[in-house]
Design a protein that fits this description.
The protein is of the alpha/beta class and 283 residues long. Helix content is 45%, strand content 10%. It has one domain: TIM Barrel (Alpha-Beta Barrel). The longest helix is centred in the last third of the chain and has 19 residues.
Amino acid sequence: MTSPEVHAKAARLRALHVDGVLVLPNAWDAGSASMIATAGASAIATTSAGVSWSLGRRDGQHLTRDEMAAAIARIAGAVDLPVTADVEGGYGPDPDAVAATVRAVIAAGAVGINLEDSQPVGGDLFTLQAQAERIAAARDAAAQAQLPEFFVNVRTDVYLFGIGVPEGRLDDVLKRAESYEAAGADGLFVPGLLDLDTLATLTAQVSLPVNVMAGPGAPSVAEFAKAGVRRVSLGMAITQAAYTLARTAAVEALTEGTYRSLAGADGFADINNALPADQERRK
């Protein structure tokens, strides 16, 4: 039976989409989730790229369901915030695979997912009907797990992968949004779309809260909010910065014998104290 604490987290995640903008600096492991929580985040979202890299794997649906669920369990156990999991394409093309993934991440402590509509080979998108069936399977699996509040944020990769002619992409996303909402989606994630005018048109025509992926060079959160965006994810950007620092600091130490790139880091105690002292799962 799903605990009252999990139901409360699921309700909190839903409520965060009602007013204002939910900003999600994405985590990739328990430590990064703890630091993001310490910074004042309202919820923790994971990044599949970051989780994949932390396990020595390329991004792009190369993880197994069990590997991702184990990573989610470590993250959910380290924070007392709602956790929404990036489960890529669901670790299988058919609805049963998506349902199994939802069950696995709920068991791991997550109260939401991102589910892509792109396939791992070639970047082709699922048809409207196929993706709708996958969304419905996710919704049914959450209900069967006694967590109907589970938040299903559906990612469409029309803009990210440049599907179709540019002038037809907005119409494609609008059709997908209508189909996905009817199937049970709770949110619409459109990575690759940063144009504020196009976003304003999109948000005015769909009732689902719209999620964008931001990073260096993207509009500010305030600008996104003005365009009607309700959720801003940083995706893999923080992980990229962390891994880049690891390489940069190593190159400096190995070639120059200096450590300038490490200046400004948080103190040992600041980081150490942000983490739980034992292995007990936080509620």
